Each structure stands twice: as structure tokens, then as C-alpha cells.
Amino acid sequence: MSSPEERRSVVTGIGVIAPNGVSTETFWKATVEGISVLDRVTREGCEHLPLKVAGEVRGFDPADLIEERYLVQTDRFTHFAMAAANLALDDARLGRADYNDSPFAVGVVTAAGSGGGEFGQRELQRLWGQGSRHVGPYQSIAWFYAASTGQISIRGGFKGPCGVVASDEAGGLDALAHAARTIRRGTDAVVVGAAEAPLAPYSVVCQLGYDDLSKLDDPARAYRPFTSGACGFVPAEGGAMLIVEEEEAAESRGASVRALLAGHAATFTGASLWEESRAGLAHAIRRALEDARCAPEEIDVVFADALGVPAADRAEALALADALGRHASQVPVTAPKTGTGRAYCGAPVLDTAAAVLAMEYGVVPPTPNVVDVCHDLDVVTGRARPAELRTALVLSRGLMGSNAALVLRKGSGSPS
Amino acid sequence: MTAQLTLNELAALMKSAAGLTVDPKELANRQDATFADFGLDSLGLLGIVGELENRQGRPMPTDAERCKTPRDFLALVNTANDTVPTTGA
């Protein structure tokens, strides 16, 4: 994403709101231990729907972190994003004192795949139940894909370049690339990531048409990519926000440089055309490696997309072989999301957070619920595997056909 | 249904419609401060106008959601109330 003489983008803070933890610490602990939190859907109004298993964020009270004035005008997906942004800013020790004199130096970028379904459902029920006069004015902004970016910007006073990436699930990685481009053009820091809340009844119904959705009712068997039992994916809510800063700006304020956003590329190969995604994903990996000036052999760990659909899993394994050659069958591959479900755009950002932490702690987290891998990949199952990790590859694909790859290099900083 | 809107009621509406905790005494002391100073944005005021319209079963004056201060808002809303014939109560 940058040449030596260019402005490089580094990760200095991580904030996570995920099904397996509503802080970065609990998320990482559960991830390393390979704990699966997939469970029966318990959200009100969803009980009778054919989606039985999901990754719900439980025990999250947004009022602990966000003022009520923001909560009343925002959907759950924005509550997640604002809370995660808070955690990330704290983690990076980036406070108002750092940018009070230069608010235009900090921007915000989020990715979104479905917007504010729960808020929208409530207001539409008022529309049809009570009439148009009972629809609140905040409906005009709460459902909107850009809501999280806007509210994080307003609350934090970030006046730098802001944006929202709506490019399917892989948009979570594209948002990080967008942040890196923003930094290359002169912005010092970007609050970037994605969080989703797709488990309101309306949102669940919207997903029921996806052939790739797992309808199994056994949480231990519902989402098992790369196995002969693969029967689709389990959706999840939550996500992660990162603080990405220009390297020198981060160093000059004494921030810990956790990882370098080294390379990214994205392609598009069409909705649910999984066989075709092989070429698209392979191309994205090759270009991301070129962007990062990284040889295939330098990749120490792969965070796989791991859709859990046999044709998609095969395409991903073949794409890795196409792009990494013999190294594809030797490099450790993991998919921690099998323990949480796929939070759409939030999923690859959670994987990016896990990849940064994996490099810091020198351990590859395992792939919960997955045993007997039926592809030529070294999928880490069962227990976490200690390993020196200097470079990580994160992959993501969306149901609508987007493919993206991100290369991360370990930073000089130590775990905070 | 056309009782005068009080500062207490306005404070309660700011809480329910916009999530703002405002002390009615503070509102009374600073009636010429802007709604923005109290943290109320234009959509929040629009929500309050909508709530009042639903409660009273009739439209508020067209410029109600454009009022900048609590004093202006109460004056406009309550004047409108005076001009509408009441049916008892």
C-alpha cells in the first residue's frame, strides 16, 4: 500500500465488539482458546424463522460507553461501531488532546453491508401500525450505511476525510485500504473498520434467500468450512474498529506501532459464483503481495475467508495454491470466525484484529468446530499453534461477488 | 388538549425524543441559549414537534421546527395554542 518514501499506514489501536467478547482482551482470549460461541438464535421475533444458529453479541450495553443522545438516533450496528471506536481510541491512547488543534488530521472510514435493520424495522412497524406521523425523524439517518462513520466523526470531533465503503463483505478489507489511501494523501489518522447487526427479524428474513446460509440447528455442526460437513455459513453481529495512523505521526506521539498495512487488492467475480471466485481471489492475493513487496514464502499465516460452502471452500484452497504455489499447503491457515459466525463486513476486520494480535503474541488461533479438513491446506484446528509470525494474509469474499486480500506486517510495538 | 407547553414538559420531550438530560431549571435560566447549546439538533427538534402534533392531534405552526431557542419555541407553540379554539378541559 506504500513505498518506503510514501506515507505508510500502521495500526496503533484495536477495538472489538464481537460475539465472543465485548472487549479486545476477551475477544482475543476466546479466539486463542478456540471457544465457539455459536448458539441458537434468541432474538425476539426470530424464534420461528428457519435460521436457527447465529453469533449473537450478548452482554453488551451500549449505554456503558455511549451517551444516550447518540443511542436514541442510531441503530445497533452503529452502537457496535461507536463502542468499538471508543475502545480502539483508548487502546491507541489517541485522545482529544492529540488532535484538538488539528481536527482535520483525523478521518473516519467504515464499511457496511446492511445498515440499520433493527431501527428501520421498528420505524416501519410504526408506519404501518400507527401511521406516518409516528415515524421518528432519526429514521432518516439511522438505517443509512454511512451512519456509523457520521456518528463516530461527530462524537469524536474528527473533521478529516470521512467515507463509507459499501462493497459487500470484503468491504471490511477495502475500508482499511481506503484508510491507507487517505493517509497517503496527507491525513494523519483514520478511525476505520466495520460492525454489523444483521440479526433483527427483518434482517434475518432478508438473508433467508441466501443459498449459502446454514440452516442447521446444531451449533457445533452449523458452520464447518473446509470439511466434508460444510453446509453453509452462520451469520453474526459485531465487528471491530482500528486506529490506523501514518507511521511517523504515530511514532512522534509515542504510539505503539502494532502492525503495518502492507498491501491490498480487490476483485469482483459475481454473486455466488464460487468457482469463478478462485481466479478473482488468486488475483487479489497476487496483487496484494505485489503491493506489499512480499514473496509468497514470507506469508506466515493465512486468515481464510472460509465460507463453509463446498464449492467456495474448494475455490479458496485452489486460489491459495494458484497464488502462493507450494507454500499454500505449508502455511498455517486459520478461520477463527467458525467460532463466532460471519459478521459480514465486520468479519474481515475482526480477522485483521486477530491477525495483528496473533503476530504480537506469536500464536496462530485455531478454527473452532472444524476437524478432518478435506483440502490440501494446513488448517489449524483444535488448539492454538505457537509460531513466529511476521507477515499475515487476510482473505475475504462477499456473497455478492467481491474478493479481497490484505497483507499485514508485524509492527515494532509490543502488546499494550 | 391545548394546555400551555411548559419548560418541564419541553425538558421531558428533549429526553424522550432526543436522549438529552436537561434540567428544567437550566432550561428556564437559559431560555435564550440555542437548542444546539443543549445538544439538540434539527432532527431532534423535528421529533419533538412530531410528538406534540400527535399528542394534540393537530399540526404545529410551520416554523416550529426552525426555532433556535427554547423561548422562541415555547412562544410560537403556545401562541398557536391560544389561537385555536378550545373545546373545554
TrEMBL record, chain B:
Tagged with keyword Phosphoprotein: yes
Transmembrane helix keyword on record: no
Keywords: Phosphopantetheine, Phosphoprotein
Gene3D superfamilies per UniProt: ACP-like (1.10.1200.10)
A Pfam family matched in the record: PP-binding
Carrier domain residues: 4-81
Record protein name field: Putative acyl carrier protein
Organism from which the protein derives: Streptomyces lydicamycinicus
